[in-house]
Amino acid sequence: MDAFAVSIAAGFLLSPVGPRQMFRLAFHFGLFQFLMPVIGWLAGQTVAGSFSVYDHWIAFGLLWYVGGKMFWESFHREESEPRGDPTRGLTLVTLSVATSLDALAVGLSMALLRCSIWGPSVVIGIVAAAFTTVGITFGGRLGPRLGRWAELAGGIILMTIGAKIVGEHLLG
């Protein structure tokens, strides 16, 4: 669901959304959602959970950085200036990592339970890619109607997801 919400925010920025942008975001979110449980499972075979103490703070920091940047730019960028493309470069990698860190913890847990990781990881990756495709399409269609407010809303969404992740770990 985090990948879905972030993809809506990306669609706000990109509107209109091109097929390459949609593919890049869905592919990367799906790939990272597939890989992170596998990496967590492999790490859980040896490390057994020490990373789960910090994963929520890392996700929080990454999402607040990107969301804060979008929020700030919504007030300080002229309408004629081009918006950044969240489906390219470091922003794409940052969003992919931030939305999949909780999957790393799932992989750690599955290692401790001695469960197979491959089937669940494939399902997680496919579902994340599908939800990302729907989210970016929705955001791309809604973005032109919201104009500058779309970028502001996208930044707030990312920052809220970051706060939610930390809140769930601290309260749960």
Q: Can you summarize this structure?
A:
The chain has 6 helices and no strands.
Give an account of the 3D structure.
With 172 residues, this protein is an all-alpha fold. The protein has one domain. 80% of the residues lie in helices and 0% in strands. The chain is built from 6 helices and no strands. The two termini are 18 Å apart. The mean pLDDT is 82.
Highlighted features:
172 residues, mainly alpha, 6 helices
Detail the topology: elements first, then pairings.
Elements: H1 2-14, H2 19-44, H3 55-76, H4 89-112, H5 118-146, H6 148-171
> Could you describe the largest sheet, including whether it forms a barrel?
none
Helicity level: over 70%
Number of strands: 0
The share of residues in extended strands comes to: under 5%
**Terminal-residue CA separation:** 18 Å
Uncertain segments: none
Mean pLDDT: 82
Number of individual domains = 1
Element order, helices and strands? HHHHHH
Estimated radius of gyration: 16 Å
Shape: globular
The number of helices is 6
Structural class: mainly alpha
